[in-house]
Amino acid sequence: MGLISLDGVRDKNVMQLKKLNTALFPVRYNDKYYADALSSGEFTKLAYYSDICVGSIACRLEKKEGGAIRVYIMTLGVLAPYRGLGIGTKLLTHVLDLSAKQNISEIYLHVQTNNDDAIGFYKKFGFEITDTIQNYYTNITPPDCYVLSKVIAQVHPKK
To answer: From the UniProt record, which GO molecular function terms apply (predicted)?
Structure first.
């Protein structure tokens, strides 16, 4: 287990994220995705297993009315040979811990309705299906997605 490390995404290694996304997802991401990922700071991470880049989580920070910030997980993925080693867990736990410390009220994401593995994974962490969006995806079947959300309990530092 000790072989997993996380690293931030910066201009100099954003190509790693692009390569992973090409391998992992049926969707091609645009420049805005990468701009959002870079501007989310610590909320976007690459995961390394024995120094090989094998996974990532990319988030977008969204301001809600009243100043609350919520986190949208744009992508979370681990290359197939490296699944089941705790890498996805480490990536998601990083973002959950960071959110609790930074006064973030909610985390949400979209998952294709037939992606039982992903749905089961997020449910283990307390995410719930809060909505279904028809025809969310173009060019992939099924085109529908679930919205999974988790309300974050705030960590209040001791006075």
So the answer is: N-acetyltransferase activity
Q: Is 94 a catalytic residue?
A: no
Q: What does the pLDDT look like over 85-125, one tens digit per residue?
A: 999 999 999 999 999 999 898 999 999 999 999 999 999 99
Q: Select from 98, 58, 93 the least CA-distant residue to 75.
A: 58
The answer, yes or no, to whether residue 156 has pLDDT greater than 90, is: no
Mark whether 72 is an active-site residue: yes
Rounded CA separation 65/35 (Å):
23
Name which CATH class applies to 4-151: alpha beta
pTM of the model: 0.92
Domain boundaries, given as residue ranges, for the chain: 4-151
